[in-house]
Design goal:
The protein has six helices and ten strands; from the N terminus they run H-E-E-E-H-E-E-E-E-E-H-E-E-H-H-H. The protein is of the alpha+beta class. Helix 2 runs antiparallel to helix 5. The chain is globular and about 50 Å long. It starts with a helix and ends in a 19-residue tail after the last helix.
């Protein structure tokens, strides 16, 4: 099924709740959309179930989830499962395609290791201790897909890139939970610091440029969609981040003015 077909199904199919995702910080339901025979499993996050945050406007997280998907598609990252905004059993909310199998956990690209057991090629991000005081290291894999995700997060100004928000399914890397993204103020908080200060690959610069070009066109599909989902100031800030990355194409380093790593990191 193409992304367009999946999007149509998620927008138009009847929603059948299957259960609540108990580990989500906001209300999130596992649902089936479009019936058992030809439907899709998805995650439905109603606006009514969003907990207020001190630094993000109330009732905007679902729209930011959809905006993140639109930006991923426009830049060619394909990093976010198909996500739409629609009416559901608990009111308007985001509905995101479930990737991978319900029966098997997705592959992980962020792990906790003893200090002497970090795989070759993985980047150490955080050192700490376990419950018994044993030393531990949080590290993430180094792949082209992970490097691309790190650039995508800078574009989004993602303030909550935990390890559990990175899923390997169907042979691809996906990012989920982008509700606390796209703020006007710098709020990048991520586990993906392994390339801090390094040049951004040309292929990723092209993706950033594609988003910047789409934002510069008043009638582009991306610009039109984002103007319905975000404030003018948030769209302007997104455009400014893209231009800043193109002018200085390097992975950022922690600023020291904002917690660099989300908690918990996984």
């Amino acid at each position: 099924m193409t992304a367009a077909d999946t999007s149509s199904l998620l927008l138009e199919g009847a929603i059948e709740p299957l259960g609540r995702l108990s580990d989500a910080s906001n209300d999130a339901l596992l649902v089936r959309v479009g019936g058992e025979a030809a439907g899709a499993v998805a995650v439905y996050k109603p606006v009514a179930g969003e907990r207020p945050l001190w630094d993000f406007p109330d009732g905007t997280l679902a729209e930011r989830e959809v905006a993140a998907y639109a930006i991923s598609q426009a830049g060619g990252w394909g990093a976010v499962p198909t996500t739409v905004l629609r009416e559901g059993p608990l009111g308007v909310g985001s509905v995101q395609e479930w990737v991978g199998s319900l029966d098997e956990p997705p592959g992980r690209v962020v792990e906790v290791f003893p200090p002497n057991a970090v795989p070759a090629g993985w980047h150490r991000v955080l050192e700490g201790q376990g419950r018994r005081g044993e030393p531990l290291v949080v590290a993430h894999a180094d792949t082209p897909e992970m490097r691309a995700m790190a650039v995508f997060d800078v574009v989004l100004n993602n303030s909550d890139r935990k390890g559990s928000h990175l899923l390997v399914a169907e042979g691809r890397l996906f990012g989920i939970d982008h509700g606390v993204s796209l703020h006007t103020e710098p709020k990048l908080r991520t586990i993906l610091w392994g390339w801090a200060g390094e040049p951004i690959p040309p292929a990723e610069q092209e993706r950033v440029a594609a988003v910047a070009t789409a934002l510069a066109e008043p009638d582009s599909p991306l610009r039109s969609q984002l103007e319905r989902l975000l404030t003018p100031a948030e769209v302007a800030a997104l455009k400014a981040r893209c231009h800043a990355l193109l002018e200085h194409p390097a992975y950022p380093v922690p600023s020291g003015r904002w917690p660099a790593i989300p908690w918990p990191p996984l």
